[in-house]
C-alpha cells in the first residue's frame, strides 16, 4: 500500500482527558464528534490552505490570526474560518477538564471581581453574549490594552484578529451542544461552567498580562 506523505503543518491536539470526562455536562458522543470530526476537519482544511500560501507555514496559528491583513487575499477567508476553527477548538479543549467548575481562583478571580462586580455577574455576561450570538459562533472573555472584556464572535472568528488576547471561550455552534441540549443553548451555557478549568484559565491570563 502506497504511503501518502502530506506536509501537515497543524495537528489535532489529543485531549488530555477522556471523552467521557466532562459527563454529564458534555456527553461523550458530542466530544467524539466535536473533537475527532469537526476539529479534525478544521485541521485538514487549514493544512490544505497553508499549502497554497507556504509563506505562512513559518508562523504559529495564533500569529497568523493576529495579522489577517498579512495573509494573501486568495486564502484569507479560508484561513479565517479553518485556522480560526483549529485555534479556537485547541483553546476550548484546554480550558475544560474533569473536576472543573466552582468559583474562580487565583489572579483571574480578582480580575473578574474588579471588572464585573462578582463572579455571578460575569457568568451572566458571558452566557448572555453566547445566547445572543445569532447563528454559529463563540462567546469570549478576552484581555485588551484596557482590561478584561466579554464579547462574542460569529463563525470561527478569533478575538486575536481584533488585537485581543482570549482568556476564556465557549463554543455556541449547535454541534457543541445539540445532541444533549437540542435547542436549549441557555441550558448548555449554564451547565458548561461545571467543566471550566480555572488553573488553565489562570495560566492564559498570566501569560496574556506578560505579552
Ligand atoms: Mn465547535
Your description of this structure?
By secondary structure, this protein is mainly α. The protein folds into 2 domains: 27-94, Helix Hairpins (Orthogonal Bundle), CATH 1.10.287.990; 106-210, Iron/manganese superoxide dismutase, C-terminal domain (minor pseudopilin epsh fold). The protein has helices at 28-50, 61-66, 73-94, 106-116, 119-132, 178-181, 185-192, 198-210, and strands spanning 137-144, 147-154, 165-171. A 3-stranded antiparallel β-sheet has the order 2-1-3, with helices on both faces. The longest helix has 23 residues, at 28-50. Manganese (II) ion (MN) is lined by residues 34, 38, 89, 171, 173, 175-176.
Keywords:
211 residues; mainly alpha; Helix Hairpins; minor pseudopilin epsh fold; 2 domains; 3 strands; binds manganese (II) ion
The gist of it:
The chain has 211 residues and is mainly alpha-helical. It has eight helices and three strands, in the order αααααβββααα.
Give the helix tally: 8
The secondary-structure class comes to mainly alpha
Strand order of the largest sheet: 2-1-3
Rg over CA atoms: 17 Å
Each distinct ligand: manganese (II) ion
CATH topology of the largest domain: minor pseudopilin epsh fold
Report the count of strand segments: 3
User: What is the average of the pLDDT values?
Assistant: 95
What is the CATH class name of the largest domain?
Answer: Alpha Beta
User: What's the structural domain tally?
Assistant: 2
CATH architecture of the largest domain: 3-Layer(bab) Sandwich
CATH superfamily of the largest domain: Iron/manganese superoxide dismutase, C-terminal domain
Amino acid at each position: 500500500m502506497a504511503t501518502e506523505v502530506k506536509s501537515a503543518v497543524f495537528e489535532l491536539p489529543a485531549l488530555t482527558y477522556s471523552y467521557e470526562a466532562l459527563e454529564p455536562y458534555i456527553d461523550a458522543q458530542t466530544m467524539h464528534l466535536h473533537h475527532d470530526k469537526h476539529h479534525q476537519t478544521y485541521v485538514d482544511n487549514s493544512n490544505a490552505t497553508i499549502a497554497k500560501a507556504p509563506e505562512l507555514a513559518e508562523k504559529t496559528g495564533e500569529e497568523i490570526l493576529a495579522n489577517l491583513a498579512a495573509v494573501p487575499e486568495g486564502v484569507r477567508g479560508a484561513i479565517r474560518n479553518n485556522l480560526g476553527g483549529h485555534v479556537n477548538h485547541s483553546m476550548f479543549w484546554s480550558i475544560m477538564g474533569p473536576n472543573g467548575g466552582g468559583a474562580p481562583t487565583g489572579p483571574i478571580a480578582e480580575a473578574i471581581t474588579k471588572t464585573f462586580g462578582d463572579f455571578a455577574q460575569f457568568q451572566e455576561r458571558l452566557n448572555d453574549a453566547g445566547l445572543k450570538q445569532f447563528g454559529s459562533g463563540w462567546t469570549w472573555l478576552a484581555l485588551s490594552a484596557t482590561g478584561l472584556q466579554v464579547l462574542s464572535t460569529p463563525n470561527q472568528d478569533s478575538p486575536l484578529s481584533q488585537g485581543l488576547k482570549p482568556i476564556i471561550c465557549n463554543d455556541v455552534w449547535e454541534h457543541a451542544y445539540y445532541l444533549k441540549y437540542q435547542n436549549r443553548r441557555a441550558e448548555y451555557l449554564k451547565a458548561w461552567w461545571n467543566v471550566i478549568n480555572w488553573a488553565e484559565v489562570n495560566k492564559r491570563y498570566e501569560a496574556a498580562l506578560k505579552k
